[in-house]
Specification:
- The complex is a heterodimer of chains A (420) and B (573).
- With 420 residues, chain A is an alpha+beta fold.
- Chain A contains 14 helices and 15 strands.
- Chain A is globular, with a radius of gyration of 22 Å.
- Chain B is 74% helix and 0% strand.
- The chains are: A alpha+beta (420), B mainly alpha (573).
Chain lengths: 420, 573
């Protein structure tokens, strides 16, 4: 540790005048001026064909990039702190990493990114889109039409945010049925369902959910937040059951829907009870916080990231790289996941100690994997419809947003056989 | 001194009194001011809730329909967590006076606080059935639903009221709030229009409710509030909104063409006060001038003159000050508007007129005021470049030229050595000309530069075009401060036309890259390019700035501009 600090201090001092070294260390601890753009710098280096390394658990999960004039230029423009290091210094870093819970993971290829979002959605209502745009990471927006025609196979990584895959439009009907934005959303979804030959929105969304499931099974990486986590699994498990209220598909929910759910088809959850009332703004008992149900709403606390063995469990370690381990919680349509609704194979990445729910989970499915993070926006804990968008230039060191960007970058890692 | 809670409680009691109908008020007189009630109130203020509850009940034992006592009991029972015990007492009051809306409302509120929502609904239905032509049940129930965020249910209740009573007018206020909560801004604005037509005091609530609408929705709100027939109440809402949205000039345009009756004049006066608070001085001036056309009050003319001067319109300030003087007696004018008038004349380069004016009012001024005003007039001569006249005026009043004045006179004459000795940072250091002068005198080693003096003189006369040209010309006279003078010229040019300013910024960046002004020049150059739609060129400049001057304090600003150009951040407009 002492060696690392001495080297780091010496190099940081030299940084402004250093001649080209062999590498640029992108520290991700508190020395980093802009954590979020550090991911963009690394992603774009990979996109341009450079090789990089993710130094797991080393100084907050630092990156090692080749030292080139262009890399320095980009770092300077983005305000990302970089430290030029020569081979000898890198050898010192590797030696220190070998003796602790750290490991270097080669990053080889920038993943092709898709974000599932309706064409009319403002780009500022999705934390992942905010993070991607701020970090300068390119993405392609896809929606039902693209999913239905099989375009997901063109992408390595897919993000879902607050789409309601039960087709009930997040039950906003209860409160916002007359609001122009809700009417537009309803019409847009209905028009797409008709265009693609489905009788109603729930039928379309179930089919889309199933295609997303197949995408993961075939090796895709799925990252979902907010309501998309819970409703994707409900749509998958309820594939052959009417789980939508009458306002969505013309018929009431099957009163025996709970018993008919096929949880084997779901990615993360099991045995959930569906909310039968169309007038209660909750989908099921998967979410622990139930933010939109006044009598059930739970207060926000903090969640703690789990520590994993970098050498034995690199994937989970990548997903929790952060310069903070305790992070303030934030609400979403789905904020958290009840422990008693998780499948046995789920890996819990973060939970709220003492609470019956967890925040951040991961699992494998077929050849691919999924990661679910509850909540809507890590820097807007009480986010409400109509709230102004989060300006990430004011949150460039956000530990919550880092979790999102860990997910963006981890598919770039060269696959190593899991040692556990 | 009463605590905040005491004040709130007293206000609550006062409002209760104000809300009573005359009939109830008469019935309540005894209990409202009676000793038992006062004792209950005292106990409540001292947080002795159990004893207060007993005292309120004592009042109610004598008069079961005492509304103040019922409201007091409602408050203290809530503190004691036993609101359910209030229900039989409220029911008794309702049984005696079934038409009294306040008792019904207490019942709804109490059941609601207990979470007995089905009973709230039942109580509403009962109230509605008992008084089918009364709007109050719908309003009270809808208010509770809105409070719970059950906007759709509240909407249904109000629609039902509208259908039952045959008009939505009585629910305009609730509908306006509801539509705003639903994000139905146009409908909300339309409902506010109706609500303020009957209750003009709701205009502030309307402004508060509609202020959050996004930029793209604002034109539709404007259309609703500007739609014929023009009403003062609706236009006042729009004027207030425009002030809150940062467009005070549009606010004035919303009300300026109203027929000039009493209500319109009140609106203009109110707007002028708000515009002054927003430091939109010339808009405030315009509103006051409109009022002056109807009410020739000297105080208003004085305010208008002061606002004009604060807004940089010395010509208008002088005219309005003269008008104010004509409406006042000499003594009052000397004590108020004369200073504004003299300062305006000084800025306008009319010191001779100022001297005459000062002489005319001399008899009404005390010595200190006269000295201060004499200095103001002397500054007029200084700005004219007539140092002899300035000195003569000061001497005629037995005044010396003080250090700062000497410094400015020296600077205007190009005597940088004397200016360097005399001009010091002062409380007025925020004054841009002083900051600029001190920066220049610190930077250059030159002791004399008449061209620099001419430039500062033009600036003092508010002749920015001449000042820009003079600063640019002076740059060659003091090479060691050339970039400072060029940057000043560019900034002055930019207020009128970017092209000339861009040439100067370009010159600084390309030929004086090491100058302290270079990063600022590059940032301003980029901004000018952005304004003219040359986004790509602006990006080049911003990138160059960030990479060339990484330690500059302007880098975060440059990075933000770059982010906005690339769409990496949400728009802030």
């Amino acid at each position: 540790m002492l060696f690392r600090n001495i080297i780091a201090a010496a190099l940081l001092t030299l940084a402004p005048v250093a001649a080209h070294a062999q590498h640029l260390l992108v520290p991700m601890d508190d020395d980093q001026a802009d954590h979020l753009r550090a991911y963009g710098l690394t992603y774009n280096a990979l996109k341009d064909g450079a090789k990089a390394e993710w130094l797991l658990n080393y100084r907050g999960g630092s990156f090692l990039l080749p030292d080139t004039p262009e890399m320095r230029r980009r770092a300077g423009l983005a305000g990302v702190t970089v430290v030029p290091v020569n081979d000898a210094a890198v050898a010192g870093i590797r030696s220190e990493m070998a003796s602790g819970n750290m490991d270097a993971i080669p990053l080889e290829k920038a993943p092709r990114i898709a974000v599932y979002t309706p064409p009319s959605a403002p780009p500022w209502d999705d934390a992942v889109v905010l993070a991607l745009r701020y970090a300068g990471i390119p993405y392609t927006a896809v929606w039902d039409e693209e999913v239905e025609r099989g375009d997901l196979s063109k992408f390595d990584w897919l993000h879902l945010h607050h789409e309601d895959f039960t087709g009930q439009l997040n039950k906003f009907y209860i409160t916002y049925r007359g609001a122009p934005w809700f009417v537009d959303m309803q019409n847009e979804n209905l028009a797409m369902a008709k265009k693609l030959g489905f009788p109603n929105v729930p039928a379309l969304k179930k089919d889309v959910a199933d295609k997303i499931r197949r995408y993961v099974m075939n090796g895709g990486f799925l990252f979902a937040m907010c309501g998309a986590t819970e409703t994707l699994d409900l749509a998958l498990a309820g594939h052959d059951v009417d789980i939508a209220a009458a306002y969505a598909d013309g018929t009431p929910m099957d009163p025996n829907a709970d018993a008919k759910m096929d949880w084997a088809r779901a990615l993360a959850f099991r045995d959930a009870h569906l909310e039968q009332s169309p007038y209660v703004n909750a989908m099921s008992d998967i979410d622990g916080h139930q933010v939109n149900v006044p009598g059930r709403r739970q207060p926000l606390g903090t969640f703690t990231l789990f520590q994993f063995s970098a050498k034995l469990d690199p994937v989970n370690t990548m997903l929790v790289q952060d310069h903070r381990t305790v992070i303030p919680d934030f609400y979403g349509v789905t904020t958290s996941f009840m422990k008693n609704r998780l499948k046995p194979g789920d890996v819990v990445l973060a939970d709220e100690p003492g609470a019956p729910w967890v925040k951040y989970i991961h699992g494998d499915y077929g050849k691919g994997s999924w990661t679910f993070l509850g909540g809507h926006d890590p820097e807007d804990p009480q986010h409400a419809i109509g709230s102004p968008p989060t300006d990430l230039s004011l949150h460039k060191n956000s530990p919550g947003y880092r979790l999102i960007l860990n997910n963006v970058l981890f598919p770039a890692a060269k696959k190593k056989p899991l040692k556990t | 001194m009463p605590s905040v809670r005491d004040v709130a409680l007293i206000a609550c009691v006062m409002l209760t009194g104000a809300a009573l109908t005359p009939r109830v008020a008469r019935a309540q007189q005894q209990s409202f001011g009676g000793p038992a009630y006062m004792r209950a109130l005292d106990l409540e203020q001292q947080n002795h809730y159990a004893e207060a509850a007993a005292a309120y009940k004592e009042v109610l034992a004598h008069d079961a329909t005492s509304l103040p006592a019922l409201l007091g009991l409602e408050r203290v029972d809530a503190q004691l967590g036993r609101s359910d015990s209030l229900l039989p007492i409220v029911d008794a009051a309702i049984a005696r006076q079934p038409h009294e809306a306040a008792f019904r409302t207490i019942k709804l509120r109490t059941l609601h606080s207990l979470g007995r929502f089905d009973e709230v609904r039942a109580a509403f239905e009962r109230w509605r059935a008992d008084w089918p032509h009364d709007a109050e049940p719908y309003r009270a129930y809808a208010k509770l639903l809105i409070q719970d965020g059950l906007t759709a249910e509240a909407d249904s209740v109000l629609h039902r009221g509208e259908a039952d009573l045959g008009s939505a007018r009585q629910f305009a206020y609730e509908l306006a709030q509801l539509r705003a909560a639903l994000g139905q801004w146009e409908q909300s604005a339309a409902a506010w229009r109706v609500a303020v037509a009957d209750k003009t005091y709701l205009d502030q609530a309307a402004i508060f409710s509609l202020t959050p609408v996004s930029v793209d929705v604002r034109p539709r709100i404007r259309a609703v509030l500007m739609a014929p027939p023009a009403t003062v109440a609706a236009r006042r809402i729009l004027a207030g909104l425009e002030l809150n949205w940062g467009s005070p000039r549009d606010g004035w345009l919303a009300i300026k063409d109203l027929p000039p009756d009493t209500a319109a004049v009140d609106a203009w006066l109110d707007f002028s006060r708000r515009a002054e608070e927003a430091q939109s001085w010339l808009t405030a001036r315009d509103a006051l001038v409109a009022v002056l056309a109807r009410q020739r009050q000297p105080g208003l003319a004085g305010r208008a003159a002061t606002d004009a001067l604060s807004g940089g319109d010395a010509r208008s300030a002088a005219l309005l000050a003269a008008q104010a003087e004509s409406l006042m007696d000499s003594s009052a004018a000397a004590g108020s508007v004369l200073a504004v008038h003299l300062r305006a004349l000084s800025i306008l380069g009319r010191p001779e007129e100022g001297e005459h004016l000062l002489a005319a009012y001399a008899g009404y001024l005390d010595a200190d005021t006269r000295d201060r005003l004499t200095k103001d007039v002397a500054w007029g001569w200084i700005r004219m470049g007539n140092m002899a006249k300035a000195k003569a005026l000061l001497a005629s009043s037995g005044l010396d030229v003080d250090g700062e004045a000497e410094g400015w006179i020296a600077l205007y004459q190009g005597d940088l050595a004397t200016a360097r000795k005399r001009l010091k940072p002062s409380d007025d250091a925020a004054s841009p000309p002083l900051v600029l002068a001190l920066a220049l005198l610190q930077r250059t080693k030159a002791d004399s530069a008449p061209a620099v003096g001419q430039a500062f003189l033009a600036l003092a006369r508010a002749d920015t075009a001449a000042a820009a040209a003079a600063f640019e010309q002076a740059a060659s006279a003091v090479p060691d401060a050339a970039t400072l003078l060029l940057a000043t010229a560019a900034q002055l040019d930019a207020d009128r036309h970017d092209a000339r300013a861009v040439t100067l910024w370009q010159l600084i960046v390309q030929q004086h890259a090491d100058a302290p002004e270079a990063p600022e020049a590059e940032l301003e150059w980029a901004r000018a390019l952005r304004r003219s739609g040359q986004a790509s060129a602006a990006v080049d400049r911003l990138e160059h700035l960030i990479l060339t001057y990484p330690q500059s304090a302007l880098v975060p600003l440059a990075r933000r501009e770059l982010d906005e150009l690339r769409g990496a951040l949400p728009s802030t407009s």
